[in-house]
Specification:
Elements (H helix, E strand, L loop, with lengths): L10 H25 L3 H32 L3 H17 L11 H22 L3 E6 L4 H5 L3 E4 L1 E5 L15 E4 L2 H7 L3 E6 L2 E4 L3 H16 L11 E6 L8 E9 L5 E10 H7 L11 E9 L4 E7 L10 E2 L1 E3 L5 E5 L2 E9 L12 E10 H4 L1 H45 L14 H30 L4 E7 L4 E4 L3 H4 L12 H9 L5 E5 L2 E8 L2 E12 L3 E8 L1 H15 L9 H13 L2 H4 L1 E9 L2 H8 L1 H17 L6 E4 L4 E9 L2 H17 L1 E4 L3 E4 L2 E8 L6 H16 L6 E3 L2 H23 L2 E10 L5 E10 L7 H10 L3 H21 L8 E6 L7 H10 L7 E5 L7 H14 L2 E7 L6 H7 L3 E4 L1 H4 L6 H16 L3 E4 L5 H10 L3 E2 L16 H24 L1
Parallel strand pairs: 4-5, 28-29, 31-32, 32-33, 33-34, 34-35, 35-36, 36-37
Antiparallel strand pairs: 1-3, 1-9, 2-6, 3-4, 7-8, 8-9, 10-11, 10-16, 11-12, 13-14, 14-15, 15-16, 17-18, 17-22, 19-20, 20-21, 21-22, 23-25, 23-28, 24-25, 26-27, 30-31, 30-37
Helix pairs in contact: 1-10, 2-10, 3-4, 17-18, 23-24
């Protein structure tokens, strides 16, 4: 009964926490305004803007150098072309062979070397070269290695003053004769010719790309349209990486005989791109990047810091929501800004390669200043919070101190006496103290009056109150006397001793729930029932009432006994038996062990009632009930279910043999019992019963009831006067028949059928002429049309099947037509029983719903018994009114013979499957079909061969001359009306064409 109380909070805490929260909110609002107001973002954007400005300036400088100085080769190209044409005119060189060897090109090379040296000096580049070639570029690209003659000069330091004797130059490539004639030193990696290897594609590109464009663009207005900026590469066996710019050498007649180019080594380029200018004192990198517009990829052509970003690496850039681009390298988040140089003209052959200068800076360095600002803000916030919290503590203490003093004084007071509190000289608190003093006085007066009222009440009742907050107890004087304890003095108790005393009564609890307990205590030679009701108030107190409800419990027990017991016999009634059985079965097999449920039905009770009256009938029932008690163990559950029906449940036995012995004893004992009927004649007790065994027959109570009832039913209708065991085989047989009957009733009432459609095909064209509607049941066991018709015949419900067939089949057909699953030109064959007619109500319904389609219906007569003349007359009237037709089904099967054919005069005859099967190998069947067709054609009757399942059967019936075809070979019945496959249609047409051709041959022969 102890309650969980929520710990109260002191007033100091209640004042202090809101003030601290208010301080924190003010700090958060102030700092949030600064941080999230855009100031930090603005600082970061300014830092990025500075980097972008420096990249832009350096990009402009680099672009100027690359376009106005380095790639300014047009004048040199004119000089070389002019001199080449002069030498060719003189016959000194042959431009068609100039690329074949160093000897062929030497006269020209010796003349133009001075032009290349002048270009190196004037353009401030680290190298200049001419490569001669007259071979096809595609042929050279497919070769593993090839060499070309030419000349290559290099100046590793173009910024220094040039030497008059060219001692600052090196020859990288050139023939031996050229080296001797120029008196210029050769590099350690000097070679007489240019060697091009397949593994260095960029080295090849400086020759092949501009050379190829010179061939393709002979009408180019300037060399810049066909010039090519080469990506970083090296000469063969050389370690100096460089970028280059090369243009084709083209004579005035359009003959391309080589390329002219210049180089800038990456070492020299690094001196022009000082990365420390991007961000002072920080690691930053200048990149020369090439973006492939077609692939969308970025490649590094130059890096001012190879360790940070290696040259030639592929870059994966990400664009943020604010439009900035970033690069992630080894867990480093880098800001990158790219300014494109526009080295190529738009629509040029190499415009997809966009060269650009990129500055890369760590994002952490970009945001360093803003992070410092945030750090200072955090220090300011901590200082402000410290000052605010300190002030809040002081103010809260000053406010709460008087209230704390009042609280301590109240805790010391005795609440059973009227209280007086010292004043604090605070107006509001003093007013509250006066109110508390008045309230205390009123409560004591009310409690005294309540105790006096309880003592004078006629019902034994008492109350209590536990105040956990103030550790006080209020209890009436009679409280423990209700529990039979006269010696306990309530005035000496406190909360803890009261709870301990109540715990001593737990042994007497018989029922308990939330806020309620029922005690059963033996007192003065009788059982006394005490109800304790209690509830929590304000989470701090418990109030409760103890009441003597012995009389109420006794009245309730009497009512429950009358509710659960049969008044005549005193046995349990059906309701009590079912409740007890559910309780027992819930305990499971470990508790029930072996058990038997016996259903007893008294024999001869009706005769006794009719002959001697119901008083003697009641005596007969009472005698049976007494015998059941007498000859069964005490723990056996016995109940009277209805007038002459009883249930006995034996449980808790180790084997069925034990129960069988008890039942044998039971039967023998019952056989001795009797009652006296007028005039002084003995009437022995006779009864029939059925036994179902647990767990052998079932583990479920409801199923055992059903089984024992069935077993008793079997005895009552056979030997009578015996008690027999349940027979599962007999039960299933009877149950299956009953199930089918129930399903037939449900099928008819709920219209649980559906209709499949099988096409009837024109035997000449292969087109679908009609569909036959075939019934399918949707019940669990009753699905076959044959089973449905057979059971309906036994139950005399064929008329309902006829009604159901026409209602559902016509409705389904119309739906398919409207949904364009069946052609509006098609007919539908619907089975109709010969000896049953449709009601006028059903006819009106069909004529209303199927208006416009009534002439599409064909009544297919299927009855194999004697046709009802009246029913057939009605069918003829309906057929005439609808302008429809009859079809005779199963012709030749023995059901529908010549007599029915003559009486019905149908429009269609359907030859039975039994005749069509194997007709291609049976002469007798062929003769029957020939005679039928001959008879039908004389009377304009159409013949349908149904049940065709093979190609041989199809060929034969077409040969014999049937009009229509039906069977699995053409299409199986389906809920979605099937179509005929094209192969079958073509086969039917081909057969007819062959037959027509043979007939024409036979006529010509005659």
């Amino acid at each position: 009964m102890r309650m969980k109380t929520k710990k109260a909070q002191p007033i100091l805490k209640r004042i202090l926490i809101p003030m601290i929260l208010l301080t924190l909110m003010e700090v958060i609002l102030l700092s949030g305004t600064f941080i999230y107001g855009g100031t930090i973002q603005e600082l970061n954007q300014n830092a990025r803007g500075i980097v972008q400005g420096k990249v832009k300036n350096r990009s402009s400088y680099l672009k100027n150098e690359m376009l106005n100085n380095w790639s300014n080769v047009s004048y040199t190209a004119q000089l070389i072309n002019a001199r080449a044409e002069e030498l060719e005119t003189e016959g000194t060189i042959d431009l068609d062979k100039i690329g074949s060897s160093s000897q062929e090109c030497y006269p020209l090379v010796s003349e133009i070397s001075k032009y290349l040296i002048e270009m190196i000096r004037s353009n401030k580049v680290t190298g200049a070269f001419v490569i001669f070639n007259t071979d096809d570029p595609d042929t050279l690209r497919n070769q593993e290695n090839f060499a070309k003659p030419g000349v290559y000069f290099r100046d590793l330091d173009p910024d220094t003053s040039p030497s008059i004797r060219n001692s600052d130059l090196l020859i990288e490539r050139g023939s031996v004769d050229l080296v001797h004639s120029l008196d210029i030193a050769t590099d350690s990696m000097w070679k007489p010719q240019f060697e091009f290897q397949k593994e260095n594609p960029e080295t090849r590109n400086i020759l092949l790309n501009p050379y190829e464009q010179g061939l393709l663009n002979t009408d180019a207005k300037s060399l810049t349209e066909v010039g090519y900026w080469g990506k970083p590469h090296t000469l063969t066996d050389d370690d100096k990486k460089m970028i280059s710019y090369s243009v084709p050498l083209v004579t005035s007649q359009g003959k391309v005989y080589g390329v002219l180019g210049m180089e800038i080594t990456l070492e020299y380029l690094s001196s022009m791109l000082p990365s420390d200018e991007l961000m002072s004192g920080k690691n930053a990198v200048y990149l020369l990047v090439i973006k492939d517009e077609e692939k969308g990829t970025y490649e590094t052509a130059f890096s001012s810091d190879e360790k940070a970003i290696p040259q030639g690496s592929k870059l994966q850039l990400e664009t943020s929501n604010d439009g900035y681009q970033y690069l992630d390298l080894d867990s480093r988040h880098m800001f990158i800004d790219t300014d494109y140089l526009q080295l190529y003209d738009s629509n040029g052959p190499f415009e997809s390669d966009r060269w650009g200068l990129a500055g890369v800076v760590k994002e952490r360095d970009i945001t360093e200043f803003s992070r410092k600002i945030l750090h200072y803000i955090a220090l300011a916030i901590l200082f402000t919070i410290s000052i605010g919290i300190g002030g809040s503590i002081i103010v809260s203490f000053m406010i709460s101190r008087p209230i704390y003093a009042v609280s301590k004084n109240m805790q010391r007071l005795n609440t059973r006496k009227k209280i007086h509190l010292p004043r604090t000289n605070i107006l509001e608190i003093d007013q509250m103290e006066r109110s508390i003093e008045k309230l205390s006085s009123d409560v004591i007066d009310s409690a005294t009056k309540f105790t006096q009222i309880l003592n004078k009440a006629s019902v034994r009742i008492a109350g209590f109150e536990l105040d956990f907050k103030h550790e006080t107890l209020f209890i009436t004087d009679e409280f423990f006397r209700i529990f039979g304890e006269e010696s306990i003095t309530t005035k000496m108790l406190d909360i803890h001793s009261f709870q301990k005393q109540m715990e001593s009564f737990d042994a007497y609890k018989v029922e308990e729930s939330d806020g309620y307990a029922l005690y059963k205590i033996a007192y003065e030679d009788r059982d006394t029932y005490i109800r304790l009701s209690y509830s929590e108030l304000d989470g701090q107190r418990i109030v409760g009432v103890a009441e003597d409800i012995t009389r109420t419990i006794q009245e309730k027990q009497l009512l429950e006994h009358e509710r659960d017991h049969d008044l005549l016999t005193g046995l349990k009634n059906r309701r009590a038996f079912q409740r007890l059985m559910h309780q027992l079965f819930a305990k499971g097999e470990d508790y029930l062990k072996k058990a038997a449920l016996v259903m007893i039905d008294l024999d001869n009770l009706k005769q006794i009632n009719d002959k001697f009256g119901h008083d003697y009938g009641d005596k007969y029932i009472q005698a049976a009930a007494d015998s059941f008690r007498k000859y069964t163990p005490q723990e056996t559950v016995i109940a009277r279910i209805s007038g002459d029906e009883f249930y006995l449940f034996f449980y808790g036995y180790e084997s069925e043999t034990e129960i069988t012995k008890l039942l044998t004893k039971f039967r023998k004992g019952i056989a001795k019992e009797y009652i006296i009927l007028p005039p002084m004649q003995r009437a022995s007790l006779r009864m029939s019963g059925g036994i179902s065994w647990y767990p052998r027959d079932s583990r479920h109570y409801e199923q055992l009831l059903q089984y024992s009832d069935f077993a008793m039913y079997q005895i009552k209708h056979s030997t009578k006067g015996e008690i027999g065991n349940f027979d599962l085989g007999a039960y299933h047989s009877e149950e299956y028949i009953s199930q089918n009957r129930r399903e037939l009733t449900e099928l008819i009432e709920r219209e649980e059928v559906e209709y499949f459609f099988q096409p009837i095909v024109d035997a000449h064209t292969g087109k679908i002429f009609a569909y036959e509607a075939l019934m399918r049941g949707t019940m669990p066991t009753l699905r076959s049309p044959a089973d449905i018709l057979s059971l309906a015949r036994e139950e005399h419900k064929l008329d309902k099947i006829e009604e159901l067939t026409w209602k559902i089949a016509t409705k389904t057909f119309i739906q398919h037509v409207r949904n364009r699953r069946i052609s509006p030109e098609c007919k539908v064959f619907i089975n109709s029983l010969a000896d049953y007619r449709l009601s006028n109500q059903t006819l009106k319904l069909i004529e209303s719903e199927c208006k416009g389609y009534l002439d599409h219906f064909v009544l297919e007569i299927t009855e194999d018994s004697q046709a009802n003349q009246e029913a057939m007359d009605v069918k003829r009237v309906v057929v005439n009114r609808w302008n429809s037709d009859f079809a005779l089904d199963d012709y030749g099967s023995g059901y529908n013979g010549e007599r029915v054919l003559l009486e019905l005069a149908p429009k269609y005859i359907k030859i039975d499957r039994s005749i069509i099967f194997g007709i291609h190998i049976n002469i007798d069947k062929q003769k029957i079909v020939e005679n039928t067709i001959s008879y039908a054609k004389e009377r304009n009757i159409k013949v349908i061969a149904e049940g065709i399942e093979t190609e041989q059967e199809l060929n034969k019936v077409i040969e014999l001359g049937v009009d229509y075809l039906q069977g699995y070979y053409l299409a199986r019945p389906d809920g979605m009306p099937p179509l005929i496959n094209k192969f079958t249609v073509d086969h039917i047409k081909e057969l007819n064409e062959k037959m027509t051709m043979h007939e024409e041959i036979d006529r010509d022969a005659e």
